Amino acid sequence: MGFVVLIVLMTTLVHYYLWRRLVRATTAPGPLRRALTWATVALGALIPVTLVGSHSDWGRFLAWPGFLWLAVMYYLAVFLVVLEVPRAVALAVLRRRAPARTAPVLVGAPEPPGEEPSGEEPKGVAMNRRDFVARTAAAVAGAGALVTVGTGVRTALGDPLIERVSVALPGLDPRLGGLRLAVVSDIHLGPLTGLGHTERIVRMINGLQADVVAVVGDLVDGTVAELGPLARPLRSLESRYGAYFVTGNHEYYTANGPDEWVEELRGLGVRPLRNERVEIAHAGAVLDLAGVDDVTGAAGGGGPDFERTFGGRDPGRSTVLLAHQPVQAVQAAKYGVDLQLSGHTHGGQMVPFNLIVPFQQPMVSGLGEVDGTQVYVTRGAGFWGPPVRVGAPPEITLLELRPGDRRKAG
Length: 410
Prior knowledge:
By secondary structure, the protein is α/β, with parallel strands linked by helices.
């Protein structure tokens, strides 16, 4: 309930700002302004209704228009805020350049009673200037938002990029050098994705010929009953040592919780790692591959259990941990984890949202380090909410381990 109230409040404030800049500032009082005002109200109501109802039978048809308007709204606000300073400067310059209005005076003739020469310009001229600046800013913001969202839709619905990353692990047994892990996260099967979305991801992963496949959370945005058919292509994942899965926060947001998806994936041949580790034997050496539940599970008495996951392990072995959120590396570092693989951030998904992510997570994307543990954060292969990605294209990672000194992050 609190989430819904927050969404309604934020949506109301943003739409009020859009109304002032795009409707009130560009139109005169009358039928057109009234029509645009009611359209703004309707679009504002569409967003919370979409967020609440897009997974229900009655609200599913709202998913595409609702989430697309959410993206357009976001970028309209971004462009208009950026244009606030140029808008104010343009008005100031136009005022300064406007010629002063002076009444003609005959030499020697008395001035008409009650009339003083005025340096002010006619009211209509000032209004025309304000209208011109407001309409120009609105047009620029509108065009910018539509082009940005259109490009972002194409990126989000296109093929994920294959990012090839080499990670040096100090102390890695040389025989494990060259071990390859295909990492994918944030697939987000949901009301805006189809079977082709999963099939394409599986096909691209299989083309990498990885030794291990790691699905690092946020696979779904719904129940098995709703989305089970969309997940079935995962049974075709190919790798030498198997495919593994850990929960993300969105598995806990589904109506039935994560357990049903854990069992569904197990039936598809993808092994869930729920606060446990497995041995990956390769070329006569062994790597510990571990997985912990997402931190969201802690609210229900579950969540990550690092002691259970790493208790009694051989400290001489290198360890790779699957944990959905990068912030979990803070705990992982206390247990000597060499490398953590995470998702969750989407790389920000829509610039400039990437500037907000660091307030919650220690990393946004790529390879870095948290308290001495190396962390790779994938941008994810899907999207949440708007089918839009700007500045953060979808990604599938082929990560190759090698022994030696670690590479400097960045």
